[in-house]
Design brief:
Chain B: Pfam families: BPD_transp_1. Chain B: Keywords: Cell membrane, Membrane, Transmembrane, Transmembrane helix, Transport. The complex is a heterodimer of chains A (297) and B (310). Chain A is α/β, with parallel strands linked by helices. Chain A is built from nine helices and ten strands. With 310 residues, chain B is an all-alpha fold. Chain B contains ten helices and two strands. Chain B has a two-stranded antiparallel sheet with strand order 1-2. The chains are: A alpha/beta (297), B mainly alpha (310).
């Protein structure tokens, strides 16, 4: 999947720069970001918080307009948001007054109006909720389900739009380590099934290595750009317990950490925060491991 | 439920009212006016009973009138089946309780019309900064204007424009309802605008990604988000509407509670003060009931039944 195929570029992010107006004049958040993404590829964008990685995603989604450069999806320039570039937002963004089913229904009705019959739409909504293991609670409202379940519904809503590119904006960032591990596994299964092109924003090194075909590492802002791109040559399907011991996994993880904390560490807080975050990551990983092991036993 | 809770919920309000009545009963007779001493709660209750009796007497009179008319007509028809019988409506004086219904009908007319204007306007202003900038100065200008200033203008315009040989509504009614409308428009517009303008950015993004049409966006995202603020506005508006109505009725002579108070004031009998106080209490109770009614409506329309509404 990682090797370049003969087909034309699926998604092309070309020379994208963006300025945000401030009272002190324009602030250049991104400077000449370039990225080619193939069909079916899972790409993670990682970087320190505030480096503009979410801005890249928002530009691809069409929610922000690039000041210079642009995004081309299957030969057409992206100039506004649309369901073919479905977004899973960090804090689920479900409509709180609709049930899980109705939230997905809103998207399905919008995308398949006139293309699917009522019965087909119903089956499609239920199919997508089933994909994310939400069959049992599909008629519950967001305030009646847990954070992880909300995020699952958010993913189902995005998948139900049959997007050409699935955009994940730190989708598991607000979840506890255990739930996060479950959702990561679900995400890998779904991607193996559907072969979606995925761009995921993350700040979790393990998440990036485990899920991605390629990891795009961003330099710190202002004028952030793509610092380095790492190919993850791990076989799929990936099992987090087995992966953790593979030399390739360790190499990738090390490479990302090295990039983030040695080459582009934040000067003012580099050392303490590095230690803390690493510790947290390790802890999260162990908890996730334990959960998988107990499940297996 | 502990004792403290029971005390706070039930006993404390009861004691408060009791204390108020005691102070009133003791203090009132000490103030002697041109119409006699200010009546205490006991005398006021007597007046209330008097008004109930008057109402019943008037109803009896009305029933008697129709009965007499009916008898007269049957008699006439018996003698000559082709007799030209007329059925006349009863035109007795409106009682206190008739006036209550007139007031409620008038205030609801003005309030509902105001809501029909204010909510859509508020939604548009909340969605469009341009529209908001355009109407905001006007809102700020007209919001503080007293109903007493609007009334003469409304009266004159209604007299000039609402001309009909067989008017469906009395001019006094139209004038009062329009004055209510003009005064209670603003809180609903302002609160709806704020509610709509503060819709979560995430939900707006969802709407954009889904490419929802303007109408679907309003129906599925804007209205449910803004419902709490819309109702806050409506409740403020209804409170103002009820206050304004009493003043408007006094001056427009709409046969409601405001006219009742005015007539008693002009009448100046020894019963007048007591009757006006009865009206004051009834006005207060109805205002309270209207607010509770809005709260029930809000519960009905709100998606979040668990939210504490007060």
């Amino acid at each position: 999947m990682t090797t370049t195929t003969n087909q034309a570029d699926h998604l092309l992010i070309s020379q994208v720069s963006i300025d945000f107006p401030t009272p002190q004049g324009p602030y250049r958040a991104l400077d000449k970001v370039n990225l080619r993404i193939n069909k079916g590829e899972f790409v993670s964008i990682i970087g320190h918080s505030g480096c503009g990685k979410s801005t890249v995603l928002n530009i691809v989604a069409g929610l922000y307009k690039a000041t210079e450069g642009g995004v081309i999806l299957d030969g057409r320039e992206v100039d506004e948001p649309g369901p073919e570039r479905a977004v899973v937002f960090q804090n689920h963004s479900l409509l709180p007054w609709l049930t899980a089913y109705e939230n997905v229904e809103l998207a399905v009705k919008q995308v398949f109006k006139g293309k699917k019959s009522k019965a087909e739409m119903k089956a499609w909504i239920e199919h997508n909720l089933h994909l994310v293991h939400m069959d049992h609670a599909m008629h519950k409202r967001p305030d009646e389900i847990s954070g992880g379940m909300k995020q699952r519904v958010g993913i189902a809503r995005a998948l139900a739009m049959e997007p050409q590119v699935l955009l994940l904006d730190e989708p598991f960032g607000a979840l506890d380590a255990l739930t996060r591990a479950h959702l990561q596994d679900s995400m890998m299964e779904i991607q193996a099934d559907l072969g979606n092109t995925v761009i995921m924003i993350t700040h979790d090194v393990d998440e990036a290595v485990l899920l991605s075909d390629r990891i795009v590492m961003m330099t710190n802002g202002p004028a952030a750009s793509v610092g380095d791109i790492l190919e993850v040559n791990l076989p799929r399907p990936r099992n987090r317990v087995e992966m953790a011991e593979l030399p390739e996994y360790i190499r990738c993880r090390h490479a990302v950490l090295k990039f983030l904390y040695e080459r582009h560490g934040r000067k003012e807080e580099a050392i303490p925060s590095t230690k803390k975050e690493e510790g947290e990551l390790e802890k999260g990983n162990i908890v996730a491991l334990k959960s998988v092991l107990t499940k297996a036993a | 439920m502990n004792t403290k809770h029971i005390f706070q919920t039930y006993a404390a309000p009861f004691i408060g009212i009791l204390l108020f009545l005691a102070i009133w009963q003791i203090g009132a007779p000490k103030i002697v006016t041109s119409l006699g001493a200010v009546p205490g709660p006991v005398q006021v209750f007597d007046q209330f009973e008097g008004l109930v009796a008057e109402h019943q007497a008037a109803r009896q009179k009305e029933a008697d009138f129709y009965q007499r008319q009916e008898e007269r007509n049957t008699e006439a028809l018996k003698e000559d089946p082709k007799a030209d019988v007329t059925i006349r409506p009863y035109t007795g004086k409106a009682t206190f309780f008739d006036q209550i219904w007139t007031s409620i009908f008038t205030v609801m007319t003005g309030f509902v019309l105001a809501g029909l204007i204010a909510i859509p306007l508020g939604i548009v202003a909340g969605l469009s900064q341009t529209v908001y900038s355009a109407i905001n100065p006007l809102i700020q200008l007209f919001k503080p204007v007293s109903p007493l200033a609007w009334l003469p203008i409304v009266t004159i315009i209604v007299s000039a424009v609402y001309v009909s040989d067989d008017p469906m509504f009395a001019k006094s009614f139209v004038t009062s309802a329009l004055t209510v409308l003009l005064c209670c428009l603003w809180p609903t517009i302002i609160n709806t605008t704020v509610g709509v303008a503060n819709i979560s950015k995430d939900l707006q993004n969802v709407s954009k990604v889904l490419r929802l049409s303007w109408w679907t966006h309003v129906r599925k995202i804007v209205l449910p988000s803004a419902i709490p603020m819309i109702f806050t506005g409506l409740r403020l508006s209804l409170g103002i509407a009820w206050m304004v109505l009493i003043a408007a009725e006094m001056l427009a002579q709409n046969p409601g509670l405001g006219k009742f108070v005015w007539d008693e004031f002009q009448n100046g009998s020894s019963n007048s003060l007591g009757r006006i106080i009865v009206a004051v209490i009834v006005i207060g109770l109805i205002g309270f009931a209207l607010d509770r009614g809005m709260l029930l409506l809000q519960r009905h329309f709100s998606w979040d039944k668990s939210a504490a509404l007060r």
